Amino acid sequence: MKAAERRNAIVNLLLSEQGAVSGSALSERFGVSRQIIVQDITVLKGSGYDILSTHIGYIMQKSPLKERVLKLHHTTEQTEDELSLIVELGGTVVDVFVWHKVYGKVEAKLNIFSGFQIKQFIEGVRTGKSSELMNITGGYHYHTIRAESEEILDRIENALKERSYIAPGE
Fold this sequence. Notes:
Layout: H1 3-16, H2 23-30, H3 34-46, E1 50-54, E2 57-62, E3 66-73, H4 79-88, E4 92-100, E5 104-112, H5 115-126, E6 140-147, H6 150-162
Antiparallel strand pairs: 1-2, 3-6, 4-5, 4-6
C-alpha cells in the first residue's frame, strides 16, 4: 500500500470510529512502524484534517471532507459498476443501509475507496460469504458517499443518474 492510500485509509478509519484509535493499532493494521503512522498523522494535519492526538490514540475532530446520502436502486450484477463509478470519480463509499419494514434501519460500514476493496467486496458476495443488504428491499438501498468537495459529489451523483442507479423519485 502506497503512502497516499494508507493516509486515505487512516482518514476513513478515524472517521468511522467512535473513539480514539491508538498509533500501535494503526501501525499493526497497516503493517508499518509507529514512526510512519506519526508522520502520516502529521501530513494529514498539514492537509487540513483536524486530528487530535491523545494519550489513548488519535481522534478525528472534524473532517474537511463532504458527505452526501444517495438512495439507489440496481441489480446485484450492477453493484461492481456502481461502486467503481463512485471510487473512480473520487468518492469513498462510507456505508450501505436499507429501511426494513420490520427491523427499521439496517446498516453496514463499508469504507470502500479503492479498486482492490471493491474486488474484495464483490468476491465476498459472489462466493456466497454474504449477500447484499439491498436484496431484502428489492434492490433499494442508500450509500453515504464521502469526497473532498461538493463538486466531486455532484459529479458522482450525476454519473449515477446517467446510469439510472439513482432510485426513481429521488
